[in-house]
Amino acid sequence: MVIRPDQYPLFLLLLLSTACSLRPAVYHDQKGIDNAATNLTPSCIQLLVHTEKLVSVQGIRDVQDVGIKAYPFFRVNRFLASFKNHLDTEDKRNQWLTLLRELDQQGRAAEIGNLLIVDDSVWPPGVRTRDQWLESLAACGEQTIQTVRENPDRMRDLVTRTRVPDSYSEIQRFLGLYPLVKRLVTAGVSRLHAETLENFRLSSVNGANKPNILYRPPEDEIPPDPESIALILARSRNNPLAIPLLEKGPELDRLFRYYAPVWRIEQESSADRMGALFWQSGQAAVDTDRPLTYAWLSRSRFEDRIVPQLNYILWFPSRPATGPMDILSGRLDGITWRVTLDLDGQVLMYDAIHNCGCYHMFFPGTGVQERKIPEREDEEAILVPARMSDNDPGRIIITLEARTHFIIGLDKSESLATGTLYAFTQYDDLRSLPLPGTGHRSVFSPQGIIPGTGRKEKWLLWPMGVSDPGAMKQWGHHTIAFVGRRHFDDPFLLERYFSRK
What we know:
The longest helix is centred in the middle third of the chain and has 29 residues, at 178-206. The chain folds into two domains: 25-161, no CATH class; 209-457 and 469-500, no CATH class. Helix 5 (90-114) packs antiparallel against helix 6 and helix 6 (130-150) crosses helix 7. The chain is globular and about 70 Å long. The protein contains 13 helices and 19 strands. With 501 residues, it is of the alpha+beta class. The chain has helices at 8-19, 30-34, 42-57, 78-81, 90-114, 130-150, 152-161, 170-175, 178-206, 226-236, 250-259, 458-461, 493-497, and strands at residues 66-68, 71-76, 212-216, 262-266, 276-280, 283-287, 292-302, 305-319, 330-341, 347-354, 361-364, 368-370, 395-400, 407-413, 420-421, 423-426, 433-434, 440-441, 498-500.
């Protein structure tokens, strides 16, 4: 095909629209299912083809985890992909396969829960409820896992296919002259880091001197002692892969309450009140009459150990604009505060992002130190605004700036009887949120973004290869550096920049 000069702008726009998607979702079409490496029965093939087609047509694919080509009943994330070289026993391989299956079941539960049943043709043969649908898919999944377990060649093939592509676009970086533009962006990031450090300095000197609201977490009548916490964590690792599994239930709830922060939020408008996501006029909105923090458990690798991470996620209605040229404003805003625990329950690291993946900050505990890494032109520097001492008793208080919701200060308090009580709910709820009337829908698109939350900054920052900079993103899609490559859910992120003292 020959492109005329007058077609160049249109061709460039087409390339950019293609480049601006996040990592592609794996769609198991008829050909791919027929060629699946797991000997599916005809009834399972029929069920899977029917399901995959409907999910794609209705635009409800859940992309928190990544599908695996030729293995349609497994999904993977960055953490499970990190076990490729650690599957040296049958017990470890079996547990790993089970965890891949669980990711697929969670994703399919969200997708089937979000399907719009317009008429009886939507139902697969012999199925008349969503539970039956999921049970049939689960039975087919058991066939798959058994086939892989019994065939070493299939197992090796599956291991080689379990990878999660990064969320940066090489096409965007090529077309955007990334090697040149990154110098300007690096300078801007350096200025932002300097401003953040100054904000923390002023906060430590002046304290909170603006009108604010305190949101405090629920507490146990008898809080667990450090020995109880260590015992919970030790029991959670009693499995072949030594993963702190911490299944949903009372023990995990106690951990989330024990390490939960107090949010001190400066107030300028209703956009500075945290709340629960809900559907309003076809868009995700925030009900500030229901202050919620969304809880999510992740894991990290740190010096040959696997450690748990408690994620506390909150949402605001918007980041209001200061004027027509404010490129950072837009619908919805939010913060993720993450607490990485050592095996004994001591905090190794606090870190945080906005829910776009922007403004990543580390707050090391006393047991870790920053690695001496030479500054590099091709990698953005990390930001460490403050260090947290384990010797200071009390609960973490996080101060957020009005409007921008930047973290501008951290301190601790031993007792806090005042403030608005917030509740916990599961982050997974956002993958299938009730619609007004009947039905459910994920707040996240098949690109891992909350629609309608884009920012004008994307027109300046697209050369950095980040998809829709500033938009609110789903777990697994948070790129946290413009220069270089860095993901919030990278299991090696912590040990890449820090070590034990």
